[in-house]
């Protein structure tokens, strides 16, 4: 689990690349051995390929290499996907491919203000905060305090907490904001809050919904159609990873075959 | 085709929503009738569902509705996908799903500085400029002046030209930058410039490549492996769109079955 | 359109390979120019690549080659897929990939007796008759006389009419057979006849259903579960065709993205 | 593992449905508990849901039901897929979906004579023998005696041994047959024997090849093009299984993402 830390944001010129106590590092040995750690003097990471003393990392920089007894370890600057791997848990269904497309499709940009419900593990929350920048804002609703505490902690690890507002509230009672740039829903009954999302959105702005079943797709899509959204799309992204070997390249044989569906539409101004 | 215009960036509070001459608008009638236009007094749009006088749009706001003789038209704030639809041409293979995943996987953020080659129609260029914000920078290389002129024009339409630097140069001679946050390649022989990309990248930063054939995947992946990249992935995204109807929901019957593959890896510091 | 003809069944030793008047031939020029014809003296086929006199085909054998003015034509023994291509029409949703899997999954064999409803264009009917052999039997129900007439005609072209029994009847009133080896359903409301299928089947035999929407999948699957079927599967087959070129192999860019879902289960003996 | 047994072929009228010692039965408890057994007096099957005495099965019929201490077991007539599940092993890559499409695409029929190489676990061999009927013949080549012994055993379990001829030979030296109705290849370097397959085939008959990598697809396809095959297709079948639940239907989350590619073409008579 991650611990609070100043994070990896650094401009191209003034970036301090020397790793210090408190920095977080992705230690990558191979695709099955990826570790997201916070550096602390005197601590160590034990793996079946050998151990790493954090003191040996301190003073190195991102991109550097360490020799273990039975492998090589690479010290990488954490990217969103590393964080995703670390967050993974049973309740997590949103994958990077989905989050990428949801954010892109919404056309939010640095400085946008968006609403999200529910918070869940905070993976979409953190991704949004990352892309919206310092001037952006993510307001995230959930009814479960424990989920929000975890997400809050994860966000603070990445020093993104100032871009996020956590609200412990059932959004079936409505959102507290008006004129937001996008609403993202990842919850069991999104059709129940389509109208609330409509009210919170700026005209022409996007509602983006993620659901795992086709029944939810149908209900949500039809409700959006009825409540004033236009240009509605229901889509699914299937990711195939390839195993590349000279003269023997092919897709991997076993993997994720389904995560969920993305429904998106834009608010039109209803004419009564 | 688009024309130069001040663009739709507006904060949540100070956004001027009244449409004026010079603004660009997505006119959405149905999935097959989507038009990206620049408002000009006295002009009109003719469709098989009726005509629209631009003078009738001026004074309305994004999200508003217009009645045509045989349909309803919605005035939407353009999103990246609308621009994509307008840019589409035979040489265009990068789809929104691909661009979304490429940008996300690179973990670039507002303020990042990235390199791209080739420029092509400028769709990835514009998308990057959008997400990197005012303080970000996209340096885009191409050997074809005509392509760059088109991309330059498209970028200026969206008022993103200040975030983009166009360079007319064969990158097999190397990039002029060092320490960039990501390199994106969409060109026929990316394996020839993997080493050049390595030199231009900040340690631990990502190289993201898009290619249409499996042979290119293999060559690029193996070259990246050889030249110091780690955590390399070769992936493909298949998008399925659904046709939603009450009690009769199903995927669309005909569509895009392939765009290309995405290969990505991170620069490790080579130990000689 | 096909015409009645003695067909291509011939054993490995006694097969008369010399093509005569009345034989049917697949004339294959390229993937977009495939013609299924019945040879008749004095007739001709006109294509944009040149014409073919049927008199020039008579006397040749399957596998032979003809030179046209602007292309080469191959004379092939018709296979089920050629017939499929010739039958194609708006109402046709069952593709060879689906029919192949449906027949295989049912584990029918030469000599089996099966029921099918509805007949449709007869493509599944003909495929079943082909694989069940001379001693097999396909009993096919439909409420539309015109569909059955077309299917009957198509079957007679392939000389398969003796293996097929056409019944013009609404199967919601029940099937007239008992103890059949498999039941195949390709109709709008299969869940309404699941019980009828159960009654017609031999214990342990398979019910195989094809439907285009996910709503139909759910209704059919649940009804099968309720009515005594076990080992029920709901599956979908996605076919990707590749464009192979030396050093530039990739999936085709545009194609069929959905045909339908296959639900299958086996009859258990209900214990009351 | 299976044991020699008289098999389940029975016509619709004269089928002896009472299960006896020596019969094989698929015992289906749930999707994860499927057992293919040969009945023998005094023996038993132990599962974590309870045990079954074979003496309790003898005297029942296919489709019947048995109560276990913690579940219900269904006694099913084995279908090809059950046999597939029992045969599964690391070297097995051909799945039912692939075998179904390969057999269908070849348009073989009861009575056809076909060649196959290599034999492997014998799953394609058995499937072919099943569909070709008593008058059909499968000649299967392999260089490994152990593989052929296993396949021979499996075939005899299903009483299909009289339809299959096993040949222990490296087919790079050529096939011993001429004029066969189809050739099926499932081997590492199929392009090396494309010419041999051509020589063995009847004009217009099909060569069907299965390979796991894209490199093999390219080599095989190009060699077939060069050696006189026409109407060549390279295809891949992706199977998605659905989890059906009332109001919550969706594809399974994890599964097989790749098995292999199927290349097929028909022999034209070369004109020198």
From TrEMBL, chains A, B, C, D:
InterPro entries named in the record: SAM-dependent_MTases_sf (IPR029063), TRM61_C (IPR049470), tRNA_MeTrfase_Gcd14 (IPR014816)
Source species, domain of life: Archaea
Single GO biological process annotation from the record: tRNA methylation
Binding site for S-adenosyl-L-methionine: 121-124, 142, 170, 186
GO cellular component: tRNA (m1A) methyltransferase complex
Domain tRNA (adenine(58)-N(1))-methyltransferase catalytic subunit TRM61 C-terminal: 73-255
Entry's transmembrane regions: none
Pfam assignment, any one: TrmI-like_N
Coiled-coil regions, chain positions: none
MF (Gene Ontology): tRNA (adenine(58)-N1)-methyltransferase activity
Keywords: Methyltransferase, S-adenosyl-L-methionine, Transferase, tRNA processing
Protein name per the record: Protein methyltransferase
Organism: Candidatus Aramenus sulfurataquae
């Amino acid at each position: 689990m991650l611990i609070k830390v100043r994070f990896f944001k650094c401009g191209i010129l003034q970036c301090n690349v020397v790793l210090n106590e408190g920095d977080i590092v992705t230690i990558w040995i191979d695709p099955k051995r990826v570790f997201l750690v916070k550096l602390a003097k005197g601590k160590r990471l034990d793996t079946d390929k050998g151990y790493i003393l954090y003191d040996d990392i301190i003073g190195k920089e991102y991109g550097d290499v360490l020799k273990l007894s039975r492998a090589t370890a690479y010290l990488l600057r954490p990217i969103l996907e590393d964080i995703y791997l670390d967050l993974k848990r049973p309740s997590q269904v949103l994958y990077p491919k989905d989050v990428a497309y949801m954010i892109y499709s919404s056309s939010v940009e640095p400085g946008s203000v968006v609403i999200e419900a529910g918070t869940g593990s905070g993976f979409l929350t953190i991704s949004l905060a990352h892309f919206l920048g310092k001037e952006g804002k993510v307001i995230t609703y959930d009814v479960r305090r424990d989920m929000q505490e975890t997400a809050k902690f994860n966000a603070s690890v990445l020093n993104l907490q100032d871009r996020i507002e956590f609200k412990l509230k059932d959004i079936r009672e409505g959102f507290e904001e008006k004129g937001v740039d996008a609403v993202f829903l990842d919850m069991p009954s999104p059709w129940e809050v389509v109208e609330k999302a409509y009210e919170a959105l700026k005209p022409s702005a996007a509602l983006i919904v993620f659901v795992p079943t086709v029944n939810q797709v149908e209900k949500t899509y039809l409700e959006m159609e009825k409540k004033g959204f236009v240009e509605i799309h229901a889509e699914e992204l299937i990711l195939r990873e390839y195993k590349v070997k000279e003269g023997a390249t092919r897709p991997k044989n076993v993997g994720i075959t389904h995560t969920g569906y993305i429904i998106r539409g834009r608010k039109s101004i209803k004419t009564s």
